[in-house]
Every structure is written in C-alpha cells, then in structure tokens.
Design goal:
The structure is a single chain. The chain is mainly beta and 98 residues long. 0% of the residues lie in helices and 23% in strands. The chain has one domain. The N and C termini lie far apart (63 Å). 3% of the residues are buried.
Length: 98
Amino acid sequence: FIYEVLDGNGGKAQGSVTLNINSINDVPVLGNDSYIIDEDITLSILVGDANQLLSNDSDADGDTLTVNTAPISNVSNGSLTLNSDGSFNYIPTLNFNG
C-alpha cells in the first residue's frame, strides 16, 4: 500500500509498503475409510490400489503424505500390519464376523 506523510509546512512525501506473506504448513485432510471382507479372509490393500488408505486424503501444501505406523490403535478382532505408504494387511480372528 502507499501512504503519505505531511510535515505541517506544505511538504509531503509518499512511501510504499510491501507485504510478503509466508505460508505455513497446513494439516492434511483425511477421509475415513471402510472395507468389507468375508470371514476368515485376509484384507490386503496394496500401493496403487484405488481404495488405498491414502487415496481419499490430501494435503493443501502438496506435501507427500506418509502413514505413521507407530500409533496403531483400536485394532479389534484381528491383527494389522500397516505400512508408511498406506498399504496394509488385516487378518481377522478365525471365525470372527460382525
């Protein structure tokens, strides 16, 4: 923007101000995922699958998203192997359904 300064005796001068706004890292936007499998069948989601864990997630900054594999929680009725690229295997407990 441009501003003006007066000296009280008829003198004036103009100056300008330039603002540079630095970006900050925005948090990723995640979509919930849902899968249906038959009893006693392993669910394997591979990199590049249309329904991969990261396929419905995005980052406003364009950063590459990776999955943090350490804080796996709420895995019920089976075992989960989760990879940082969004691929995973879920093996349900034998005869579990629901």
